[in-house]
Amino acid sequence: MYDYLSHQPLLKTCKHEHTHHHNHNHADVRAMDKKILIISLTMTASMMFVQFVYALLSNSLALLSDTLHMFSDVFALALSLLALIAVQKWQNEQKTFGYFRLEVLVAFVNALSIIVSAIFIIYESIYKLFYPEEIDAKTMIIVAFLGLLVNAFNAFLMFKNANLDNLNIKSAFYHMMSDLLGSVVVVVGGVAVYLSGIFYIDSLLALILAFLLLRWAVILLKQSTNILLESSPVDINAVRAMILEDERVEEVFDLHITQITNEMLVATMHIKTPLVSLDEFELLSQDLAKNLLENFRIGHSTIQALRSKNEI
């Protein structure tokens, strides 16, 4: 029975007939994510300071906007790193499922910060369409291109090695991708301005970028909000139907399914059963928990029985 009371996210299942579960795999995955976040945070923060200085020197509002966007990335990466450290290091007996939910909370905050960044870009872009300013396009292009290289490296590092199923890491990756697109917009806009002298071109590109950011952020916000509101990540009716397929179960009620973090689902329920033996019920509980794990990836199941003659 205790095999189905997991207090850790489930590991990815292998496509083999037999699977091996090693306790250190969770630590290995998060250790890799932590290493990637530290590298990305260091590089992004360094590039942010460089961009800020040259944005002032070149009088480039687009470059300054991208610097602000990069600051939101630094904030997001720092929060994501803090969440990983909390999961790995912090212990509190009052936190019965540890600090895994902190990863979701960070994803929620990151999504909000992306939305704020996108709204700021939209505002600045519209303003610049009506009130264009002369800029040092050459400096803008060079600095933005350096930022593009940094963001491209970090995004590639996350895409290839990080656990993007984790909402916390996914939110950091979305931030990095949005900043990568921001750098592309600034570079393209800078080249266009340099060649044509038309200053509003980069504003139009920035508007396109902002709406892409909003789309990503809304998806992430919806996912994290559903978890924080403890919405069931799987079909409740499908779970109830599967449980009732067992002839030892007469009724299922007070069924709750919640998600702590990625691959960490919890189910609690009461069932009516005609069984009278504790050993028989324990076997039933094990069978139901096994089915919940195999069919719905629910790793923690708490099942309480009521005798058939008892009323709810």
Automatic annotation (TrEMBL):
GO molecular function, one term: zinc ion transmembrane transporter activity
Domain Cation efflux protein cytoplasmic: 233-304
Keyword Transmembrane part of the UniProt annotation: yes
Alphabetically ordered keywords of this record: Ion transport, Membrane, Transmembrane, Transmembrane helix, Transport, Zinc, Zinc transport
Any one GO cellular component localisation term in the record: plasma membrane
Membrane topology: Multi-pass membrane protein
Subcellular location: Membrane
Protein name, UniProt field: Cation transporter
Protein species of origin: Campylobacter vulpis
Lineage of origin: Bacteria, Pseudomonadati, Campylobacterota, Epsilonproteobacteria, Campylobacterales
